[in-house]
Design goal:
This protein folds into two domains: 6-204, Alpha-D-Glucose-1,6-Bisphosphate, Chain A, domain 4, CATH 3.30.530; 210-324, 2-Layer Sandwich (Alpha-D-Glucose-1,6-Bisphosphate, Chain A, domain 4), CATH 3.30.530. Helices cover 26% and strands 36% of the residues. The protein has seven helices and 18 strands. Helix 1 packs across helix 5 (181-204). The longest helix is centred in the middle third of the chain and has 24 residues, at 181-204.
Length: 330
């Protein structure tokens, strides 16, 4: 669903999804399906998860006869229709793999407004235009700015092979100008990283309560030097997929299995499945932003005590990132 926010010349969702572009240069992703024993041991962190994700990203914007320009991305995820629908179309589900999300409802219980929180002072809003559970959700926003065309977004969930569903998201706008095509393609290319997180959530933690710790910092160090330095500071060294790693030194405690490492030409990404301080996921990456490099650490905690654990852990992480990667200078 589309959301509205503008700051410092960027739309917030563009910044979030462009971060994924920096980590995801590949347009089509095919990975082998999980083995039965991996599904039985949902919360095991002894090795990486061989997940199935077929993420189709268009190479260009499609334009129909009416002048509507559109992009579409789809992926196959584990779970029945109701489970997957809750993950992509309800505030609790979206919060478990994307960002903390709430909704406003009408008298009949239908969502009319969705509010996504990307951090302090960064509230994003979308208007729900279609609600057909558990199959289709439509929304509009001014994500490109108040003077730009309205963005229409549609989420669809369809049964696929046994025990799996197809999730499809499309973004479109009406314009006779090519100036918005790069934004549309950027959104399409950005979703795969978040779909990987969605996939892991549905395999290991479906329906569990969640709480997100969002951390951002900045560095003026060259990009080629920053990523190796960040990994060393965290205590990760040069990890491999499937390896169990943990933080060290003055870094708050974090232990998990490496699920993904970014690939050249953009290797600055790690995706971990956590066993400590609780079961969860951690997504760590770097992104060029102007003359500085953004450092992002997103930690999703799952379980009944996720919110209480966040209260204990968040301040430790905030202190650490502020001391090592202070906020960008204005």
């Amino acid at each position: 669903m589309r959301i509205k926010f503008r700051a410092c010349g960027f739309t917030l969702l563009s910044v979030i999804l462009l971060s994924s572009i920096a980590c995801s240069p590949i347009q089509t992703i095919d990975e082998s399906p999980p083995k039965p024993k991996d599904l039985d041991e949902k919360n095991s962190t002894s090795k990486g998860t061989p997940t199935e994700k077929k993420i189709e990203v268009p190479k260009m914007v499609k334009i129909d006869d009416s002048g509507r320009r559109s992009v579409q991305v789809e992926t196959t995820v584990p779970g029945d229709v109701d489970t997957v629908w809750k993950a992509v179309a309800t505030p609790e589900g979206i919060s478990a793999w994307f960002v903390p999300t709430t909704a406003e409802y009408d008298a009949d219980g239908k969502p009319v407004k969705v509010i996504a929180n990307f951090g302090p002072g960064m509230e994003s809003i979308s208007q729900v235009t279609e609600w057909s559970p558990p199959k289709r959700l439509g929304a509009t926003s001014q994500d490109l700015g108040l003077d730009a065309p309205v963005i229409d977004t549609v989420w669809e969930v369809e049964p696929s092979e046994k025990g799996k569903c197809l999730v499809r998201v499309s973004h479109s706008l009406v314009s006779d100008s090519v100036q918005y095509d790069k934004s549309l393609e950027a959104w399409a290319k950005g979703w795969p990283d978040f779909f990987r997180i969605l996939n892991l959530y549905l395999i290991h933690f479906p329906g569990q309560k969640s709480s997100l710790i969002q951390l951002t910092g900045f560095s003026s160090a060259p990009r080629s030097e920053l990523w190796p330095s960040l990994k060393q500071e965290l205590g990760f060294g040069e990890p491999e997929v499937g390896e169990s790693i943990q933080t060290s030194g003055d870094v708050p405690s974090l232990t998990g299995v490496v699920e993904r490492i970014g690939q050249d030409p953009n290797p600055e990404e790690l995706l971990l499945r956590l066993s400590s301080p609780s079961s969860g996921l951690a997504h760590i990456f770097c992104l060029p932003m102007g003359e500085q490099i953004l450092v992002s650490i997103r930690i999703i905690l799952y379980g009944e005590e996720a919110s209480q654990l966040k209260e204990l852990e968040e301040s430790k992480w905030q202190d650490w990132i502020k001391s090592h990667y202070p906020p960008a200078q204005q």
